[in-house]
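Record format v2
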Amino acid sequence: MTRLLDIQNLDISLALPGGMLHAVKDVSLTLDRGEALGIVGESGSGKSMTALALMRLLPRSARLKAARLAFDGQDLPDLDDRTFAATIAGPRIGMIFQEPMTSLNPVYTIGRQMTEAAIARGLLSASAARKKAVDLLDRVGIPDPEGRMGQFPHQMSGGQRQRVMIAMTLMLDPDLLIADEPTTALDVTVQAQILDLLDDLRRERQMGLILISHDLAVVAERTDKVAVMYAGELVEQGPAKQVMFAPQHDYTRMLLDSIPRLDGEPAHVAPVRKTDDEVIAARDITRLFTSRKGLFGPRREIRALDGVSLSVKRGETLALIGESGSGKSTLARILLGLDQPSSGEVSMLGRPLAELPATERARFVQPVFQDPYTSLNPRRRLSEIIARPLVLRREGDSGSRLAAVKEAMEHVRLPARLLHAYPSQLSGGQRQRVAIARALVTRPEALICDEPTSALDVSVQAQILKLLEDLRREMGLTTLLITHDMAVVHETADRVAVMYQGRIVEEGTAADVLSNPTNDYTARLLAAAPRFGDGAPVTEDAR
Amino acid sequence: MLRYIALRGLLALLVAFTVSLAAFLLLNVAADPAQAIAGEDATPDVVEAIRARYGLDRPLSVRYFDWLGGVLQGDFGESYYWHKPVAELVADRADETITLALSALAVTILIAIPLGALAALNPNSWIDRFALGVAVSAQAVPNFWLGLIMIILFAVMVPIFPVSGDDTWMHFVLPAFVLGASSVPAVMRLTRTGLIEVMGADYVRTARSKGFRGWQLLRRHAMRNALLPVISVLAVQLGQKFGGSVITESIFAINGLGRLALESILGADIPTVQMLIFVFAIVFVAMNLLADILNAALDPRIRIG
């Protein structure tokens, strides 16, 4: 039987202003029907490029070369673009993209986008396509699928949009599904549901699956074989269990070591100078939002936060976990003084936040945001970005500011030669270090980090988490860490607060909450978290 | 939605009255209207007689509120020059200007949008460079000069179209082209950048992964998104066509509002100038309102109200 996919010696190079970039080097992969292949690697390792090449979606400047690039016996380079679009893209190979927020067209309804390809190809009548779309939406777990068909993408959350994207791809019943980080933007409970669905489809329809991810835990659980890519090259390939538990290549081992784990000893030490001073104290915070359904609909009140009380003591790391929409970020904004609570009070070291002027607040608490690519001004040099809080506070002169900037850069392990660099010249991890340096420059009592590592690769994530840990040891820093990643909590937090639908449903020491959750929701969150070691680990002897 | 439109309508009136007040002050303070009507050689006695006859000896504020009171009852006063009610004068000539402005807008759309789209789909190709050349020259060439060149080329040397006048649709071809050409650069550039951005968007990649290519891709997933900002600009451009009609109508001897504006300014016919400014202001604001409503209708993310 012919293989579903046969790639031999694939090379992709990109023409960049600075010269040619060899993005994918000599990659060979094969896949049979009903089989799942995981491709793992950091951003820039060439894993997405390989997938885009299969779909002919490479940028114009890309040059592709392969000894063989065959799908179901058909040599893909032999097909002209029109034939490829008509026969392969969609009904044979489907692709789910990484960016759920932007992958759907904002001006057309969900229903139209889901059904158009099947109707335009003459595969289904309008009513049959509609029925199939509703069924698929229901299968991917979209509530009220009938009603959703008439809605627009902006009326849905990121997780829902990603599920629509998946359902849309399945409309054409592809024989091969390429999923590029399909669940990165989703909460763990939704992630598990989507991956289960893909598993089912694979079994039912003998569909081939390529799962591209930087999340090794997900890939290990869900695929038959795994390919590890690094700097455009395939460094290791083999059965999933063998690659995960008996890695041959140093890079694979490094990647495996940097994953935060739910089992084993936490990496962090007990707080150095823990006292009972409450650096941040929130009492009975409620935040209401009002919205209208439609143009003339009645006003509705949404309780984003409902009587939340929480305190962070000096020197400790409190992790706030919960799904998107649970109110974590609203709470963070209120604690930072960026939003006002409808009722309740926030105080910093006993002083009510409402009475502190904005520049004064900067001495107490500073934020670090999720996306280091958009939270730094691209037109300013690092020296200006980091010194900005001091300038706003009119603190010191240019000499003392420069000294403070250099000190903050030293704290976050950024080399001094980057002082005059622009953010675009830095990697994601370096940018997040800049964001932390900017937060530290006013010597605040506490940091509020909103998903500080979820936009980063695992190996970089490990470095940033270690940095936060070191800072705590060196400076006695107090941290409120907002995250949805249970393993990150296990590695870094002293205490945990779990948020669900605007309330704190469970609070306690990290060890207690993670090992004996008393709340149902916490237990569900933990159960859904992908973890290593599920399935039979290959022992040392088995190598 | 209805409330929003009513509110914006009210705002439009407010803008129109503010503009009319400014125009009134400028017209009456910059020069002595009685002197202007009488002409430079008139004796002081004649000037005084005219001043008394048109009530120009009353204080400015009294005269403005007198005018305003009339406007609120639909009476824009009587032309000093043609000795007819101004409203009648304007109504008689509005047809020509509306025809000219709309056909000029059609010319803009027909040239700018296809050219912008072709340039966007083939960036840095000869067609892109050609489109850029068209944009630069259309921007650099003054309207009156282009008008005269077109007359020489297509009415005198190759007599396809009539030189001037407004009797048949043939008379409107050259003026519409001249007036429309001035908006081509802005609209073409916006179409080009909008479409380039949209073609690089993630949702277009999604559509490509579903097997859409070429014209289908453009029609189904790119055009509406790219044209949203263009619509706002087109509405403003249409407003400018009314203003721009002053020059074009004079060159091609079209008896529309633009020509009327020029004649009444030269003749110091203050009531006519006042009403024209008022009407142009309302058209301008109304076009902007129309653009907002169209945008909200085409883009579900925009909710007005």
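The radius of gyration of chain A is 25 Å.
The mean pLDDT of chain A is 84.
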